[in-house]
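Below is a filled-in request sheet from our internal design queue. Each sheet records the structural input a requester submitted and the sequence that came back. We keep these sheets so that new team members can see what a complete request looks like end to end.

REQUESTER: design group, bay 2
PRIORITY: normal
MODE: inverse folding
CHAIN LENGTH: 349
BACKBONE (tokenized):
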């Protein structure tokens, strides 16, 4: 049924009620590096201001330096955020979509107390032209709040595949309300098909105890509709950890499937060393990555657990399972020795 069967032990001192601050900090640093935290295009938006006004900018690609350049010139007639003081403190932010994780954001300086800010700044991306042509540019304008309660002022989205690259002139564009998909929180990164099973200690025979400790079986079947980072597709693989254990013993990965946005992995992993009570404090993190020589790029992932925000009494940011992921994990807990099948959307962790 599976291409590869891996077996590793779940290593965590579950009897240690108050882990030392030092060891806890180390675990959190490891988790952070694994998860590859991804910011939403609309993160930090607390405003309800209607989009209005225009933005002037130009696009260019520097062939010699392999650099995409966004020349942000100015904005006019932006919405007023603080009506009492009649002010806005605007800045411009850009993303290359859909791969926000890989390219990150760029932003201009903040211009205070104006609805007609002048920037004359160039936002730069080091990126191959053929990769750029399968991206979209999202350019948005925001009011900067000292407390981080930033307000969305408008945006424009450009399909770079159809852009006229001979046009290097500054042009004016009307700012539009945010797209419906963004308002609804849609961030489609693909869907993973998998099955999981919990085998309690001693449930497969009395003598000798079989198994001597509980086991969690994870069968990663396939992923569909991955982000396409290159015209040829994507070279993907799946990483697996059982958190809070971030040791090398916990880490497992599938083989790399090349040039395919719908990879079939058919890979099974078995983690032993579980007691039934561990299931409420552990979290299976499965992340999908694009493989390149110098560095791997995060594509999306899922976290299977109870999503309580706590692990062995400690507050952790990775215990954040969605309702679907929680339901999937709970079903496994209630159906010992049975494979539970699921189809779960990948997300930004």
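RETURNED SEQUENCE:
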């Amino acid at each position: 049924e599976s291409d590869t069967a891996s077996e590793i032990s779940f290593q965590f001192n579950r009897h240690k009620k108050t882990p030392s601050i030092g060891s806890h900090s180390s675990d959190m640093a490891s988790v952070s590096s694994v998860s590859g935290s991804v910011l939403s295009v609309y993160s930090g938006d607390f405003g309800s201001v209607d989009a209005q006004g225009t933005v002037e900018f130009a696009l260019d690609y520097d062939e010699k330096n392999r650099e995409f350049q966004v020349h942000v010139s100015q904005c006019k007639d932006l919405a007023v955020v603080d009506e009492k003081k009649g002010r806005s403190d605007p800045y411009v932010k850009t993303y290359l979509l859909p791969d926000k994780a890989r390219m990150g954001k760029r932003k201009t300086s903040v211009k205070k107390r104006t609805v007609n800010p002048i920037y004359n700044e160039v936002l730069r991306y080091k990126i191959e032209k053929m990769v750029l042509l399968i991206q979209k540019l999202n350019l948005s304008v925001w009011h900067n709040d000292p407390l981080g309660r930033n307000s969305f002022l408008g945006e424009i989205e450009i399909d770079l595949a159809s852009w006229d690259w001979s046009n290097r002139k500054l042009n004016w564009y009307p700012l539009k309300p945010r797209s419906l998909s963004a308002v609804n929180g849609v961030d489609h990164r693909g869907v993973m098909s998998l099955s999981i099973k919990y085998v309690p200690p001693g449930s497969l025979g009395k003598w000798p105890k079989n198994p001597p400790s509980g086991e969690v079986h994870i069968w990663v079947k396939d992923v569909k509709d991955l982000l396409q980072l290159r015209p040829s597709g994507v070279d993907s693989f799946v990483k697996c950890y059982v958190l809070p254990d971030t040791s090398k013993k916990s880490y497992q990965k599938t083989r790399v499937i090349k040039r395919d946005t719908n990879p079939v992995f058919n890979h099974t992993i078995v983690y032993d060393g579980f007691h039934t009570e561990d299931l409420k404090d552990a979290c299976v993190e499965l992340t999908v990555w694009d493989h390149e020589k110098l560095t791997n790029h995060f594509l999306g992932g899922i976290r299977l657990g109870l999503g309580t925000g706590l692990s062995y009494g400690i507050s952790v940011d990775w215990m954040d399972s969605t309702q679907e992921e929680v339901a999937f994990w709970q079903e496994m807990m209630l159906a010992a020795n049975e494979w539970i099948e699921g189809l779960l959307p990948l997300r930004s962790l």
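SHEET NOTES:
- Residues 137 and 158 are 5 Å apart (CA to CA).
- The chain has two domains: 46-180, 188-344.
FILED BY: M.R.
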